[in-house]
Write a structure and sequence with these properties.
alpha/beta; Rossmann fold; 7-stranded mixed β-sheet; two-stranded antiparallel sheet; globular; binds D-malate
Amino acid sequence: ELSFIHRFEPATDSSRPPLLLLHGTGGDENDLLGLGRTISPGSALLSPRGKILENGMPRFFRRLAEGVFDEADVKFRANELADFVTEARKAYGLEAPIAVGFSNGANIAAAMLMLRPDALSGAALLRAMVPLSETPPVDLAGKRVLMTSGAMDPIIPADNAKRLAASLSEAGAEVQHHMLPTGHNLSQTDLQLLVKWFSEQS
Ligand code: MLT
């Protein structure tokens, strides 16, 4: 028994990287499977359900208010999720996955990059914000990170997303950050950027 409720789809193309799919608040392990199949056809898909319930809505860590995080819980949950990735890699025979996270799922992926960089080989962070008030010292050399943000996102100030992109690239990640003329929801442009970024994976 692995430590998170999850869905797993084995790879059908072993040259494609495994994806760790991380849903937004109120989503579940089924939400992003279709997105994963579209943006990286043939990849193995590992899709856990967040363990926190906020008024019945699954999430990956606790928050005190919208955009105000319980940082001790962010740290605990990022480590717990990284441990799950280790278990799942053994159980399913996977390389380190690329995280694909939306909103709350993007935020926990950003925290994992900072706290447990070995758990992920890279990350696509869709509508992410700064997960920890202080970035721990970390070496992200060799990790590719795609970030897409909404210039009109009512939850995430553009400056906050830019700060996250800056701290990831200061840590050595190869960051591509796109500020799109949209809000919190994903757009067709997000999909196009994801498809392109995945097709450029070595
Ligand atoms: C969060 O709590 O991670 C952010 O506010 C995004 C969200 O899930 O609404």
